[in-house]
Every structure is written in structure tokens, then in C-alpha cells.
Amino acid sequence: MKVHQRVMGIEIKKLKIFDLEQFRDLVLVFEEAFEMHDVTPPSYDLLNKMLQRDNFHVFVASDGKEIIGGLTGYALDHYFGNSPLMYIYDLAVKPAYQRQGIGKQLITHLQDFCKTANIFEIFVQADLEDSHALDFYRSTGATSSEVVHFTYFLK
């Protein structure tokens, strides 16, 4: 199973258990790309625990010097199929590197990984107001369904 590949000077790599610093760098990319302000950074302990989970997957894009993008996803078992589903939780590329095909490379790498892991469906949520995300996912070959997302806030 291929865990990394380099295209046009960008390396795409699936993180392993001990790639904690790269995971931390990706979280900082998410904060920048999603314009998250005044957030408490996750602890190294939490990130370490997440990397150790069999159903949690992290892919990063690097320009050789720094992490410039990545995605996280969860493999979810379900009772109507013989293989898990992959849920993309977050995907982002640093603003200075957007619109250069890096996000598409991340999706392609995730698709390749899923095929080798016998995962035959990937899904992701995007806000209807986020036209850039909607356009991006459509450009990667994804089909959309209109759904309403409900949230229970318990605090």
C-alpha cells in the first residue's frame, strides 16, 4: 500500500502513529484556512491518542519545508454493508497554496488508500453557503445530495 507520493514538488503522506509534530502542524493549517480565532489548541496527548486509533486517518501535503494542507477522516463501520465508509472530517490547504490542485491530490490519495483498504464510499459535508467548498468537491467528481444537518449541543 502506497503511503506517500510526490507530485509537482508536493508530497502527500499518510501520517503514522509517531508523526505527532506533522499532525500538530496540520491543525495549525486548519485554524488558518478556516479562519479560526481564539481557539484553544488541542493537546499533544489528544493528538497522540487520535493518531493511535485504527479508524482515524490523517493525510498531509508538504512542499518539502512545511505542511501546507491535509485532510482527516474516519472509517465508519455500518450494518448495511460489508465494508466501512470513509468520512472526511476536515480538508484544508493554506490560502497561499490554494487553487493549485493540492486539495485534489489529497482527495485522489485518499481514494487510492480507501481502495486498498476495501472502503468503497467516501462522504463529506459542506455548508450550502460555502460555494468554494461545493465547487471544489464537485470538481473532484463527488456527487451532492441536499440534506439538513441537525446538531445537539449538550452544554
Helix content: 25-40%
The level-1 CATH class: Alpha Beta
Low-confidence stretches: none
Number of helices: 4
Distance between the termini: 42 Å
* Spatial strand order of the main sheet: 1-2-3-4-5-6
Describe the structure.
By secondary structure, this protein is of the alpha+beta class. It has a single domain (4-139), classed as Aminopeptidase (3-Layer(aba) Sandwich). Helices cover 30% and strands 25% of the residues. It has helices at residues 20-33, 44-51, 102-116, 131-139; strands spanning 4-7, 10-14, 56-62, 67-76, 85-93, 122-124. A six-stranded mixed sheet has the order 1-2-3-4-5-6, with helices on both faces. A hairpin with a 4-residue loop joins strand 3 (56-62) and strand 4. It is globular. The N and C termini lie far apart (42 Å). The mean pLDDT is 93.
Task: For the structure shown, list the relevant keywords.
6-stranded mixed beta sheet
